[in-house]
Every structure is written in C-alpha cells, then in structure tokens.
Amino acid sequence: MSWKIGRKTDMSKKYTSYPEGYNRVARDIIPWYMRPVKDMLMRLLITILVDG
Amino acid sequence: MLDFDNLVDVMGDLDEDAMIEILEGVMEDGGSEAEKAMEACQKGMEKVGSLFEEGEYFVGDLIYAGELMTQAVEILTPALVGSESAGPKTKMILCTVKDDLHDIGKNIVRSMLEAAGFDVVDLGIDVAPEKVVEVAKEQNIKIVALSGVLTLALDSMKETVDAIRAAGLDCKIIIGGAPVSPEACAAMGADEWAHSPQKTINVCKEWAAEA
Amino acid sequence: MNAKELKAERVRLFRDAANFKKTERIPHFANVVTWKVFDAGHTLDEAMTNFDVMEECVLHFLDKYPIDGILDVGIRNQFNVTEAFGEGGYYYYDKEVIGIHDHAHCTPETLLEYLDDPIKYAWEVILPKKYGESWEKKDKAIWKNTFKEYMAYIKFILHMAKVMDRYGLPGLSPNNPMKGAVVPAVEIMMSDLLGLQQFSVAMRRSPELLDTFIQRWEVERMEPIYQKIRDAKGPNYKYCFDSSILMLAHNMMNKKQFERFYWPYLKKLLDVYAENKMNIRIFTEGSVLRLAEYFKDYPKGLLTFHIEQDDPFEFREALPNVAIMGGMTTDLLSNGTPEECVAYAKRLCDELGKDGGFIFSENKMVSYRNDARSENMLAVNEFVRDYRI
After folding, report:
1. Mind listing the pLDDT tens digit for each residue in C80-126?
2. How far is C140 from chain B (nearest CA, A)?
3. Which residues of chain C lie closer than 8 angstroms to A49, CB-CB?
4. Which of B6, B109, B126, C183 is the most buried (most CB within 10 A)?
5. Containing domain of residue A39, as a range?
6. C-alpha pair distances (Å), C180 with each of C102, C209, C218, C297
C-alpha cells in the first residue's frame, strides 16, 4: 500500500458552465492552436493540480 | 439507578445517540457514577473487539468506535479528573515509525489499548528510533508497539528494534500494520507481529500480566 | 519476432492465463514502481524532477529484467507541474522516500456539491484550500510556467508509450473512462473525497447520504460507461485486460456495509463485463478472501485478482474460478537468497499455473530500495522467463 495508483480524482464528467476565472486562465495559458482541445487540457491540468 | 449493562450493549452496538443519552444522564448529578460508566464503555469496547474478531465488525467500525470512545471520554472527563481509584496502569509506547506518516491504524490501536486500561504514550508519526529509546529509558517502559503501512516502514522498524536492543532495554516489541509478517518479525528480531488491532491488544495484555 | 508481434504475443499470454488456458510459459507482470530508480543507481529526488533520469531508470530496468508487462514506466511523477505552481503538493519525496500527505476534498456536507460539478468544486473549494485563497489570481508567469511543465509531462507520457511499444510491452488496461477505466463510487469517496476516517464514520452516521452519492454516481457516471462496454461487443486486444480496478474500500467495511454500499454496484459492473465476454483485473489492497463467497459463481476467464495480503494457495482453494496475479512476496525478495526466491517462484508456477489461471507478479508495489534485492529480482525474473511446466 505504498503508492497511490488508480485513485485519481474523476474529472471525466461533462459540464456546461465554467467557474469564474476558468476562461481567463485558459485564455492566458493555452496557445491558440490548442484551443480546440481547451477543455480536455484544462480538465487534466486541474486534476494534476488537485491530486499532485 | 443507572443501567450500566445497557451502556455496555449500546457501546458494543455502536449506537451513538443512545450512548450520549446515557452518558448525559450519568453527568446529571455531576457524575458521581462516571467511573462506573467509563468501565462500562471499556467493556463495550471489548465487545467491539470480540465482534471484530468474529468478523461481524470491520476496520471502519473500529474507527467509528474510536470516535465514540473519544466522545465518551469528553463527556465524562469533568467527573473523572482527580479520580484515583483506577489503580496503576501499564505504560507502553505506541508510534508510527520513521518515514511513515500513516496514523489511522495507530489511532485505532491507541483507542483500543486505552479502553483496555493501558497508559499509552503515543509518540505520533514518523518517529525516529532514538526517540523511542529515549522515552522508553526515561519512563522505564517495557512494552513498545511499532506501526507502519509502507513496506519502507519495515526498515525503520528494524532500526528501532536494533536501537532498543543496542541500548540494552528489556522491552517487549510488537510490530503491526499492512507490511508486517511472521517472516519480517523474525528477521528484525521483534517479539510479536499483528495485522489486527485485537491481536495487538491481546498480546500487550499478556505481556502486561507477565510483567 | 518484432516488437509489434512480441506485444501481441504477450497480450495473448496474459489473456490466456487470465482465461485458465494452459500457456507455454507463465507471463510476468512487474508490479514495480520506484524501486527501479534505486536499482539504476539514482535517488528519488533526481528521478522525480527530471524526465531524462526517470527514462534512464526505466530503460535500465527493461534492459536488465525480462518481464512481459509493467505497472509503471515512470509517468506518475507530476511533481514538476505542481511545484511550478507553488506550495501545496500532496506528495513529498527526498532521496529515498516518496509519500502522500493525507487529504480529503470534501466533508459529508459538501459531498453532493462535488458530484454536481467536480470542476467547479475543484476550482472553488479544493484548489483555494490547497494553494491559498488567491490561487487563481497567481502571476501570469507562474501559470505559463506551470503550463510549460504540464506540456513537458504530457510529452513524456507520450514518449514513454513509444518506449513501451519499442520493447513490445502491452498496456495493462485502457485508461480512458469511456473504454473501461472505472472507479467505483465507494473508492472515490473513501480515497479522495472523504478519506478513511470520515468515510468510516459516515457509513455509520449518514448511510443515506452515501446511498444517494452512489446511486447518482451509478446513473451519471457508470451508466454511460456500461453502455460503451456493451457497444464495444467484446475484448480489446490492445490490452491485457479490458478493465482494471482497485479495491481498497472493502478493507473498511463489515459484511453488511459491503452488501449495502459496494457489492450491488460492483456486481453490476462485473455482470456487464461477463455478458460481453470481457475480462477485468481487480487490484485488491489488503485482504479480499473474507469476501470470497461473492465472487465464487463467476465463470473462469472473467476475473483476475491481483492479491496483496492473501495467501495465493488459500486463495486458489477458495476461488478456483478466479485467476491470480501476484504471489511473489517482497518479504522474500528483500530478505531471501536467490535460491529461496526461485524455489518459491517455482512452487507458485507449479501449483497455481499448471492449468492456466496464474500471472506471476509481486504482491506489493515494489517501491523502496529495500523492497527487493537486485540479485533476487534477476534470479526470479530469469527463472519465470525460462521455466516450462
């Protein structure tokens, strides 16, 4: 029991509204050519910031 | 007249509301029977331990029982302070060893040891071998329980056992937690090992009786 | 055999073993995590923050030890990302030790709020708590640097997937939730949302709340996954297993609690896989043997349990329909001689694998320096590769 495997926070649910500040941060950090996958990138980043 | 058998049952059944009601009843006259109530709670905890051994209760129940016991002590404390009739208790050390920060298992064991009448010196988590030796020497303690969850804890347990032996202390040592095994126990020269808190309590009781 | 063929061959070996078909040799899945860092002569702090060092350690392991699959190729070190962002990481490490600070994201009062919108909850509750109230207003440069580290991390994951291909190593199971990566409700509640303590107390104090969470989880998260599994119409031969889940929460539960909070939902999941002739690996932390009765009626081929504390021989007797992964104890790998380790490995292969149904692996995630001796690991791995029953 020494390593946290397979217990990552589940962020897979689709959501329709964005929390305040989310879009500003996304705009600041995600280059234009990655915008089509903005939500996927943000979701994984949030997961890492939450769990890591 | 308060029904302490009922309190034993209520504690054993982990019925929080009923327990609080009875204990508040005990405290209505300032707690003249608080000691009897405490004894009943401890007997209730023994029942919890037996139900755990029988497979009826599991780890989550022990955590919950620990919560209830803490509450019981909080309610009864004002009346228990200053009471000396409990007699001398066997003092022992309990800790999670160096490099390991897990404390839930340790805390379960602590509440059950306390309920069984031990005076537990809980050194906390991530405890260096020198600290265990120092406290055991200072307080002339003969029983040491070492807890850990990581496989890494086995190294620290071994270091702690070695340090206790090297200091020439006459201590019985029990190791407990997920990574321990009879093989690990033999390899590091500890006296006993346990996966379940109930075994830890039984072993420590035997050692206390021998002493 | 080229790497692609080797990978397909290994998938077949794992799947045949899981399906109780006698295989020409016992496949070996290395349950090895950070131990490979020490074995390559590095310390954890070096490898955790430097992808080049981590890759070197992984390659050192793959070149030295003959294995058919591996749990981790060093892609769990996200430290650079959180460290670029600032204080607040749950993980801690130094030269020898890696660990996680205990944390719970919710209280029973906020549990359903999380479920309503996890991203919103993370943004408004978890991240401010972890990184400080003004977390989101952090300097633009810090955000950009965090994003740069995050991209480097993703690049490393993709790079290591190619390394796995080059070595002909198959993935354990799909990691996309819509293809079979599932987290049972009780597991996420216990491990991330409430923590062991609050979860144990909540099972007693607020069982209805847990019921509500679980039922919503089923409808909102699991149903779409079940549908995808049904639509897939059969196994995914890119992977050794169609799904891999972790069971930890059962270690807290008495039987009544298991029957109320866990089993009906786990059964539903297993039934969906069974209906579709797919297989599932369950990594069981602690012991699962006391719950054997629940699993005894499933057909051979559905279930593989990676066991930790249970004795593998007792396990086989109790559940002859369930394939076993594991068996090799880190106790022996760290304290025994190569001869003792090989003798035990032989007994495992002979007794558990003679008619299929056994995948050789370590019982615990091999993480720390003293979890295994190098010479033991080598002797055992070479034995398993060469042994024919």
Report:
1. 899 899 877 777 778 888 777 777 899 999 999 999 999 999 999 99
2. 35
3. 81-82, 85, 122, 127, 130-131, 146
4. B109
5. 22-51
6. 28, 27, 14, 22
Q: Which residues in chain A are closer than 8 Å to B149, comparing Cβ atoms?
A: 1-2
Substitution target from C310, C331, C363 for chain B, most B beta carbons within 10 A? C331
Orientation angle between helical segments B104-115 and B197-210, nearest 10 degrees: 40
> How many separate domains does chain A show?
1
Regions of chain C short of the pLDDT cut 50:
none
CB C213, CB C189: distance < 8 Å: yes
Q: Concatenate the DSSP letters of all residues of C221-288 into one string.
A: IIHHHHHHHHHH-S--TTBS-SEEEEE-GGGG--HHHIIIIIHHHHHHHHHHHHHTT--EEEEE-S--
CA distance C314 to chain A (A): 21
Contacts of B187 (CB under 8 A, 6+ apart): B158, C335
A1 contact B CB<8A:
yes
**Which residues, 6 or more positions from C93, have their beta carbon under 8 angstroms from its beta carbon?**
C44, C45, C48, C79, C99
User: Chain A partners of B101 at a C-beta cutoff of 8 Å?
Assistant: none
Q: Which domains does chain B have, with CATH numbers?
A: 4-80 (1.10.1240.10), 91-210 (3.40.50.280)
CB pairs under 8 A between A and B: 8
Chain A environment of C365 (Cβ under 8 Å)? 2-3, 5
Instruction: Give the start-to-end residue ranges of the domains of chain C.
Output: 1-21+236-242+278-389, 34-70+72-110+139-170
Six-digit token string for C86: 């600032």
HEC profile of C211-230? HHHHHHHHHHHHHHHHHHHH
Q: Residues, chain B, total?
A: 211
- At C256, phi and psi to the nearest 5? -65, -40
Residue of C38, C119, C252, C283 to mutate for A, most A C-beta atoms under 10 A: C119
User: What DSSP string runs through chain B?
Assistant: ---HHHHHHHHHTT-HHHHHHHHHHHGGGTSTTHHHHHHHHHHHHHHHHHHHHTTSS-HHHHHHHHHHHHHHHHHHHHHHTT--TT----EEEEEEETT----HHHHHHHHHHHHTT-EEEEEEEEE-HHHHHHHHHHTT--EEEEE--STHHHHHHHHHHHHHHHTT---EEEEESTT--HHHHHHHT-SEEESSHHHHHHHHHHHHHH-
Tokens 């990138």 correspond to A41
* ipTM, two decimals: 0.86
Is the Cβ of A14 closer than 8 Å to some Cβ of chain C? no
User: Would residue A16 count as lying in a domain?
Assistant: no
Would you place residue B172 in the very low, low, confident or very high pLDDT band (cuts 50, 70, 90)? very high
Residue C367 confidence (pLDDT): 93
